[in-house]
Each structure stands twice: as C-alpha cells, then as structure tokens.
Write a structure and sequence with these properties.
about 75% helix; globular; mainly alpha; 15 helices
Amino acid sequence: MGRLAKLDILKGLAILLVVIGHGIIGIINNAHSVGMPGYFMLKIMKECIYSFHMPLFFLIAGFLSNNWVKLPPKQAFSKKAWRLLYPYIIWVIITGTAMELGKQYTNDGLGFSELLKAPVIPFSEFWFLYILFFIHVIYYFFRKVAGEKWRTYFLTASIILYSLNPFLPNIWISYQVFKFTIFFVIGAQLKFMSLSIKIVENKGLSLLIFGISVLFYLYFVMINKQDILAYYFFFMTSVTGSLLMVHVASVLFDRGNKITKSFFQMCGVHSMEIYCSHLLFLAGSRIGMMKIMNYEYLWMILILSILFSLMSCYALLYILHRSEFLTTLLFGK
C-alpha cells in the first residue's frame, strides 16, 4: 500500500510540473512578454522543468507496464487504446475546437487544420499519449518475438537508438519514440521506482547531482546552443531529475502532513484528467489576463493561471465523480 501511495504522490508531482511548465510556456511564447521583468528567470525555470519531467512520466509508465505486458494481445491493446488513444481523440477534438474559436488570442494559432492531422501528427500537448501508446505496442511485440532475453535486447536496442537518434532521419514519429523509449525501458526493466540506492536515500546528493547536470544542460541549450550536446545531457538530467522526484515523493509520504499527502495523491490518481483538461483553463486565464486585461506582471500571471487551472480541474473532477457517464465519455474505460 505504501509503495502505491508513493507512486501516486510521484505522479502528482509530475503532473503539477506539467501544469507549471505549460503555464510558463504560454507566457514566454507571448511576443509581448519578451524583455519584461521575470521573463529570463521564467525561461530558465521552463528549461529546468522540461529537462526531466516528461521522461519521468515515461519512467512511471514503464514501471506500471510489467503486469500489462503479460496480458493476452487483444486484452492488452484494448486496455491501452481505451486508456491512451480514446482520451487523445476526445481531447484533441475539444482542445482543437477551442483553439480554433480563440485562434486570434492563442500563441501558436493551432486549430482545425492541425486537428484533422491529429491521427498522423500528434496534436499539441497530447503528443505524450500518442507516443506512449506506440511505445507500449513496440514493447509488447518485442517481448513476443525476441525470446527469453527480450528484456536485455530491448534495453540494448533502446540505448543504441537513443544514441544514434540525432543522426537518423525523422520518419513519422521515430525521433520522439527513439528519444523516450529508453526512459520507458528504465522504468520497466530496472524497476526504477523501487530502487533502493544511496542517491535516493541521501537528502542532498540527488539534488546536487541533478543541479550539476542541469547546469551543463542549460549551458548547451541557452548559451552555447549545442543541440546535440544538450540532447545527450538531457538523458542525465532526465534520470537525475527523476531520482530527485522519487526522493521528494518519499519525503512527502514519510514526513508530509495529511493535507499535503492527500493533495499530491489526488493529483496523482487523477493525473490523466488533469493532463487532458488543464490546458484549456490555463490558456483561458492567461489570455484573459495578458491579452484582454493587459496585465504585465509575469510571475503573478503564472501563479494566478496555475491556481485557476487547478481549481477548475478539481471542479471538473467533482462533476466527473458524480457522473459515470460523463467520465466514460471524456476519458473512456
């Protein structure tokens, strides 16, 4: 029970980083934000979050795949289609329609044209669900055809593909698949979540190692502009940042008060619902403050938009809790 609670807290931390990251991106991608007080610090904060938070989700997904991969093919793919593809389709339609209606206010102008391409080209933030589904499919088939040592072979293949990825042609979604499969594999093969090693147990060591890794990453991303070196340091920041979050989740579980633990657990349990719905509330509140009210305090815009988004997500969760039909309609089985 403790391990599952820690996992929910970890998922809660991860989804909150997603909300914060998307809140920052919406602000710094606004042309009027460039040069405003706080802009540069928000940009650094965004790079730090994006240096590990999505790999953390793939690590968690890999860890949770150990029982799923043993299911019969029909049951396995049906389960993942309902869990990943169905919400992808529904929320691409909802979000794409909202973006089309508010196209004059959004930063990137996505709308119906991108929505129609969504079956082939992952749409906006929902790329994660799309890519994760295909990684599951590849993982499952590899297990079926690779023999007894399939775990070792798959780990080896994912390391090679990650290493060569910057030099390979990007065919369809190959770049993202090759980039993130390694983290899925680490979670699945090495039981990343249950590792008991000093870097997790030591309070300061995980933070120190992540801090050093992210400094190099920031240098190559923001100063030296070396994309390939940044790509390889991304692996280091992803692993060390994920280890840091494992430690934070453990501390929250062991020492956090009841309210704090309940909050992060609830976010983790409902991470899919928050992931799918938060962008509408986040973007709506940011647009209202920046483009309609002409509010210029970037940090306050970020804080208020995140609070509004989370409160709106919790209101949605309350409604879903009272309606099984609406829950199934929006998020599948």
